[in-house]
Write a structure and sequence with these properties.
The protein is of the alpha+beta class and 438 residues long. Helix content is 20%, strand content 22%. It folds into two domains: 269 residues, Rossmann fold (3-Layer(aba) Sandwich), CATH 3.40.50.1110; 118 residues, Jelly Rolls. The protein contains ten helices and 19 strands. The strands form five sheets. Strands 4, 5, 7, 8, 10 and 12 form a six-stranded antiparallel β-sheet that branches. A five-stranded parallel β-sheet has the order 14-13-15-16-19, sandwiched between helices. A four-stranded antiparallel β-sheet has the order 3-11-6-9, with no helix packed on it. The protein is globular, with a radius of gyration of 22 Å. The protein binds 2-acetamido-2-deoxy-beta-D-glucopyranose (11 copies). One 2-acetamido-2-deoxy-beta-D-glucopyranose (NAG) binds next to helix 9.
Length: 438
C-alpha cells in the first residue's frame, strides 16, 4: 500500500523549493525579509574566513562554502555592529537565519558578492551598554540546495572577534529530503533534524541530508549522482551546485579535523524503495550494514540510532492505515549488530573506512564487528496521515513530533539531559491558534 508514496517522493525530490504562499491565521505570512545589504566603512575591522574565532557548524569546504542541510557558523564579538561579506559562490536569494545571543532568529536573503549588516543598534535584543562584553552571533543557511560562501566578517570600530567554546557532545544526522526539511516552512531549520539537534540545546550537530538521495550508491531520484554510502564521506552534497563547483572530484570530509560524533542518527532508504531505484530488501540490508560499519569504523565509540521508515498512509474503508517501508530489512540491519557490546576491531582512518569491506561489510555472529551500538528508533505511530503535507513530507507539526520523540528516546536511552531551556528552536511556529475565539 505504501509503494506509491516513495515513487511520488522521488519524483518530487529534485524540484527546487516552491514559491508557496504560507497562510497563518488566515493571513498571508509576510516574507518581505529586511534587506540587510550595506557597504561598510574602511574603519571597520575585517576578519578572514579562516579566523580561528569563527566556529563553523555542519560541513564547509576549504573555500568556506557551506554544504548539506542547515550549516552555519557561530562566534563571539565585542563592540557594536557586525557585518558579513558573502563570496561569489553564494547562491542568490539565499534565505539565512541569524540571531544575537539567545534572541529569536531573524531572516534575510543574501546574494553572491555582497555584504550584509546583521547586527545593528536596532537588532532584536541589542544592548547598547554591553559593548565591552562578549555577545554571541549565529547564522544558519535555511535551504538544503543553496549555499553561502563566507568571504569575511566585519566588526565596527573597536570590536573584536572572540572564540566561543564548543559543546562537549556531538551529534550526526544522516538522511534524505525527509531530514533536510524539504517543503517545511523554513526548510532546514524547520526539520526534525534541526528540532532534535538544536532542541537538545547542548550539543554540536551536523545534518548530512539531501533530497532524493539513496543509501545505495546509485544515481537516485534522477539527479543525485551518489548514495550516502559514498557521499557521506564527502564534504559536499549531491546538489547541482556541488557538481558545478567540483564536478566528480568532490573533496573528502576530513573526519580527523573534527570531533567524533557521540550519537549518529540515520533516517535513510525511502528513495531506495522508490520505483526509480527499486533496491531489493536483501541489497538494502547489506548496504545498510556496510554503511553502519563504515561509520563505526570512523567513529568506533559512536552510538548509532536507526530510524524505521514511516512510509505513507492510505485510506482503507473508513480509516487510515500507515504503510512503513523496508520494515523487515531494517530490523535485519539492527539485528546484525545486536549482542553484547564489543569494541570495533579498528577505527579512525577514514580513507580505510570509506571503502572498508573486509571486516565491515560482512557481519556474522562470529565477526569481531563491534556490537551493541545500534539502536532501533521505531517511528511507526509517531506521525498520522495529516502530519504529512500534500507533497508527502512531514508538516512543521510532523517535524516537531519526530524531534520531540527522538529527544525523549535519547534522554531515556543515553541519559542525556535537555539543554535548551529558553531560546526558540522552531522559528515561526507559534502562529497556530494564536488568536482567541478563532
Ligand atoms: C588564513 O589564510 C591566510 C591566507 O590564505 C593565511 O595567511 C593565514 O595564515 C590563515 N590564518 C589562519 C588562522 O589559518
Ligand atoms: C568574485 O569574483 C570577482 C571577479 O572574478 C573577483 O574579483 C572577486 O575577488 C571575487 N570575490 C570573492 C569574494 O570571491
Ligand atoms: C528569499 O528567500 C525565500 C526563501 O528561499 C524566497 O522564497 C524568496 O524569493 C527570497 N527573496 C528574494 C528577494 O530573493
Ligand atoms: C563582485 O563585486 C565586485 C565589486 O562590486 C565586482 O567588481 C565583481 O564583478 C563582482 N563579481 C561577481 C562575480 O559578481
Ligand atoms: C546590558 O549590558 C550591560 C553590560 O554588560 C548589563 O549590565 C545589562 O544588564 C545589560 N542589559 C540588558 C537589558 O541585558
Ligand atoms: C569599553 O572599553 C573601553 C576601553 O577599555 C572604554 O574606553 C569604553 O568606555 C568602554 N565602553 C563601554 C560602553 O563600557
Ligand atoms: C522492483 O523490483 C522487483 C524485483 O526485485 C520487481 O518485481 C518489480 O517489478 C520492480 N518494480 C519496479 C517498479 O520496477
Ligand atoms: C590511512 O590508511 C591509508 C591506507 O592504508 C594509509 O595510506 C594512510 O597513511 C592512513 N592514514 C593515517 C592517518 O593513518
Ligand atoms: C579483520 O579481522 C581480522 C580478525 O580479527 C584481523 O586479523 C584483520 O586484521 C582485520 N582486517 C583489517 C583490514 O583490519
Ligand atoms: C564473509 O565471511 C565469511 C566467513 O568468514 C567468508 O567466508 C566470506 O568470504 C566473507 N565474505 C566477504 C564478502 O568478505
Ligand atoms: C514498531 O511500532 C509499531 C507500533 O507501535 C509496532 O506495531 C511494531 O511492532 C514496532 N516494531 C518493532 C520492530 O518493534
Amino acid at each position: 500500500m505504501s509503494s506509491l508514496i516513495p515513487l511520488i517522493l522521488s519524483l518530487l525530490a529534485f524540484l527546487l523549493p516552491a514559491d508557496g504562499t504560507i497562510l497563518q491565521n488566515g493571513q498571508v505570512r509576510p516574507t518581505n525579509y529586511p534587506d540587510t545589504a550595506v557597504s561598510i566603512n574602511e574603519a571597520w575591522t575585517t576578519y578572514p574566513p579562516n579566523s580561528s574565532q569563527i566556529s563553523y557548524k555542519g560541513r564547509w569546504d576549504d573555500m568556506y562554502i557551506s554544504w548539506w542541510s542547515a550549516p552555519g557558523l557561530k562566534f563571539g564579538f565585542t563592540g557594536s555592529e557586525v557585518a558579513i561579506s558573502f563570496g561569489n559562490y553564494t547562491d542568490d536569494g539565499n534565505l539565512i537565519a541569524y540571531r544575537y545571543g539567545g534572541e529569536d532568529w531573524m531572516l534575510t536573503n543574501v546574494t553572491a558578492n555582497s555584504t550584509h549588516q546583521l547586527v545593528t543598534s536596532s537588532t532584536l535584543g541589542y544592548n547598547t551598554t554591553a559593548a565591552n562584553t562578549t555577545r554571541t552571533f549565529e547564522l544558519r543557511v535555511s535551504n538544503w540546495a543553496l549555499g553561502v560562501q563566507i568571504d569575511s566578517v566585519h566588526l565596527s570600530p573597536g570590536g573584536r572577534l572572540v572564540q566561543l567554546p564548543s559543546y562537549d557532545r556531538t551529534v550526526e544526522i544522516i538522511g534524505d529530503s525527509l531530514s533536510a526539511g524539504q517543503y517545511a516552512t523554513l526548510e532546514g531549520i524547520a526539520s526534525w533534524a534541526w528540532g532534535f539537534g538544536e532542541g537538545l540545546g547542548n550539543v554540536e550537530f551536523s545534518i548530512e541530508a539531501h533530497p532524493g538521495i539513496c543509501l545505495t550508491d546509485i544515481i537516485c531520484s534522477g539527479n543525485n549522482p551518489h548514495g550516502q554510502l559514498y557521499q557521506w564521506f564527502k564534504t559536499s552534497d549531491t546538489s547541482y551546485r556541488a557538481t558545478q563547483i567540483y564536478g566528480s572530484n568532490q573533496p573528502d570530509w576530513d573526519f580527523s579535523a573534527h570531533p567524533a560524533a557521540d550519537i549518529v542518527v540515520i533516517n535513510i532508504g525511502t528513495n531506495d524503495a522508490g520505483s526509480s531505484a527499486n533496491v531489493s530488501d536483501a541489497e538494502f540490508t547489506a548496504n545498510y550494514i556496510t554503511f553502519i560499519s563504515r561509520i563505526h569504523c570512523v567513529w568506533p565509540d559512536a552510538q548509532i540510532v536507526v530510524f524505521s521508515l514511516w512510509g505513507g498512509w492510505s485510506q482503507q474503508g473508513d480509516t487510515w492505515v500507515q504503510g512503513p517501508t523496508y520494515v523487515q530489512a531494517i530490523e535485519n540491519v539492527v539485528q546484525a549488530f545486536s549482542g553484547p557490546s564489543t569494541p570495533a576491531p579498528y577505527g579512525g582512518n577514514s580513507s580505510v573506512c570509506q571503502t572498508a569491506s573486509a571486516n565491515y561489510s560482512n557481519v556474522t555472529s562470529d565477526t569481531p564487528q563491534g556490537r551493541g551500538f545500534v539502536h532501533y528508533f521505531n517511528t511507526t505511530g509517531i506521525l498520522q496521515h495529516n502530519d504529512i503535507g500534500p507533497l508527502y513530507h512531514p508538516t512543521d507539526v510532523g517535524h516537531v513530533k519526530l524531534a520531540s520523540h527522538l529527544m525523549q528516546f535519547v534522554k531515556l536511552k543515553f541519559g542525556w539531559m535537555f539543554g535548551a531551556i529558553g531560546p526558540e528552536v522552531q522559528h515561526e511556529t507559534q502562529y497556530w491558534n494564536d488568536w482567541p475565539n478563532n
